[in-house]
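INTERNAL AUDIT FORM
Audit reference: QA-55
Scope: verify that the stored structure record matches its stored sequence.
Auditor: D.O.
Record contents follow.
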Amino acid sequence: MDQPKLERLLRLMKLLTANTTYNVDQLAERLQMSRRTVYRYIDTFREAGFVIKKSGDCIRLDKESPHFRDISQLVHFTEEEAVILKNAIENIDDTNMLKQNLKRKLYSVYDNKTLADTVVRGKNAPNIRRLIEAIEQERQAVLHGYLSAHGGGVRDRRVEPFAFTTNYVQVWCYDLESHTNKLFKTSRIGSVELSEAAWEHQEAHSEGFIDAFRMHGGARRRVRLELGTLAYNLLCEEYPLAERDVKPLGRGRWSLDTEVAGMAGVGRFVVGLLDDIRIVDSPELTGYIREYIAANTPKM
């Protein structure tokens, strides 16, 4: 059996477990398949020994079916378990090819909205749910009252949302005004309105570069630092992705050789530990820190 078909079967199995909500039309819509395919898969479950029951318009798998308990333990997680698993996957290095495969398999069985509702609480949750709908339905959206980090201006932004960062803190969107991919902080969005318009620029959608210090941008700049024990420990605690670019030098010293999207993130880290970090052959970072200190040092 091919992978996509197996994923659809597993997701249908989950939806049919204790189903009291969805009729065949709704199941077909949620799984993006025809009614005929839904009925064919249900016949497959029946032939495999599952007991199929119907209550009104709702079809469900009876939990008394032979082997149901063994199978359900293999493919079912509670919402809390699914979120813990999702967070563990998100913490895997972005360069690891297994990460995307694990995310795709988890999301093929568990509704993204369920995970989002568990991770995101409060006034921001409705915006996250609408953004998820926009991504799943490949629709444009309007971010009403978005508060810009640059200048503090508030205005509406018409976008094509297509991906989230960890824990839905930011959303990658194709900005229809600037025709570029941008990150928008979900906490700065006033409200989200789904548009009837479908995506028009899917071929241009691309998640940009995010460095180990959680800064993003198009250009990549290399920085080299020599770290003492305190700086090394704080780096690994606060910016765990940076650890992949660290090498021991011996005698309590470490070398960090990494690419950054800009100087702000790494610069703030260095400024707080100037007595335990040496900048190595990184003139742009040296210049940034000099200007930062000059701008933030009170005049006597």
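Auditor finding: record pair retrieved intact. The CA atoms of residues 83 and 118 lie 7 Å apart.
Action required: none
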